[in-house]
């Protein structure tokens, strides 16, 4: 599994967040090293992040992700034609945006540690209906080739359990390709049988070609079973992989020939361009 640092503006676009939404109680799951909770808190939003990465090395997580961002910059430059840059502007601007988000995360987790809770799907450490809105990006569906269908259904039902109003998930594509998660319709039917209707909505964010849809679960009418517990499952089936730090795997610790931009600078507006289909997962 990879830990990323998406920005507050990316979250607003990925999840079509309105000013009304930002007045709600929000959970980010998994939060990774995203800058969403930090910037949302600065704006007065009651937001919390949960991630298994917060259990260990939480003090170093921001620095590790900054190194990872700089390491990945060369691959972004090399594979730039495989992504959609309409919103993000280009590899240099994206590296700066993500670096800024990682720095905001690192400062916020140190200043407000209670906003960053160690926990993981398919059973989160929160009481039922703890949040109005739950956001989930780049885990469910994205890792559909590794996490099995039972894990997806159990996780989605647990996200519904802790939500009073909605769960929004982005994207619905596999991170290793630009292909929609295969069992999506079957999982949605199972959710409906449990009393959780869903719909697909197009959003104003696309990085993977074709990846501009989020799945919205309506949870106001969902009542989970009393004292529900995650099903007993084969630990090898759909188990979450440990965090992978690609910068530590490089033999010389370098990203490659492309020089990563100074992460402190202003990312700038950058009009960008649209690329062809190919790999995803930056």
Task: Walk me through this protein's architecture.
The chain is an alpha/beta fold and 282 residues long. Helices cover 28% and strands 13% of the residues. The protein contains seven helices and seven strands, in the order αβαβααββαβαββα. The chain has helices at residues 8-14, 36-42, 61-78, 91-111, 149-161, 184-193, 246-249, and strands at 25-28, 46-50, 116-117, 131-137, 163-170, 198-202, 213-218. The protein has a seven-stranded mixed sheet. Strand 1 (25-28), helix 2 (36-42) and strand 2 form a beta-alpha-beta unit. Helix 2 (36-42) packs across helix 4 (91-111) and helix 3 packs antiparallel against helix 4. The protein starts with 7 loop residues before the first helix and ends in a 33-residue tail after the last helix. The model is unreliable at 228-239, 243-250, 253-259 and 268-281 (pLDDT under 50).
Shape field: globular
Largest sheet: spatial strand order: 3-2-1-4-5-7-6
Helix and strand pattern: HEHEHHEEHEHEEH
Strand content: 5-15%
Helix content: 25-40%
State the major sheet.
7 strands, mixed
Quaternary organisation: single chain
Helix count, DSSP H or I runs of 4 or more residues: 7
Q: How many strand units?
A: 7
Average pLDDT, all residues: 86
């Amino acid at each position: 599994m990879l830990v990323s640092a998406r920005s507050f503006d990316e979250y607003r676009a990925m999840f079509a967040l309105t000013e009304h939404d930002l007045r709600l109680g929000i959970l980010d799951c998994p939060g990774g090293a995203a800058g969403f909770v930090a910037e949302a808190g600065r704006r007065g939003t009651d937001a919390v992040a949960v991630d298994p990465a917060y259990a260990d090395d939480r003090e170093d997580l921001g620095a590790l992700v900054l190194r990872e961002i700089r390491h990945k910059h060369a691959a972004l430059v090399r594979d730039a034609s495989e992504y959609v840059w309409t919103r993000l502007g280009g590899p240099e601007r994206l590296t700066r945006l993500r670096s800024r988000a990682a720095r905001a995360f690192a400062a916020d987790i140190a200043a407000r540690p209670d906003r960053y809770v160690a926990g993981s799907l398919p059973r989160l450490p929160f009481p039922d209906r703890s949040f109005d809105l739950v956001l989930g990006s780049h885990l469910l569906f994205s890792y559909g080739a590794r996490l099995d269908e039972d894990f997806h259904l159990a996780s989605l039902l647990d996200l519904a359990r802790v939500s009073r109003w909605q769960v929004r998930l982005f994207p619905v594509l596999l991170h290793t390709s630009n292909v929609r998660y295969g069992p999506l319709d079957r999982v949605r039917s199972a959710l409906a049988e449990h009393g959780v209707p869903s719909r697909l909505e197009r959003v104003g964010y696309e990085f993977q070609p074709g990846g501009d849809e989020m799945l919205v679960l309506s949870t106001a009418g969902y009542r989970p079973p009393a004292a529900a517990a995650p099903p007993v499952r084969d630990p090898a089936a759909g188990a979450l992989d440990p965090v992978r730090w690609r910068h530590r795997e490089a033999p010389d610790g370098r990203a490659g020939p492309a020089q990563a931009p100074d992460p402190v600078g202003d990312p700038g507006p950058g009009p960008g361009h649209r690329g062809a289909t190919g790999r995803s997962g930056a």
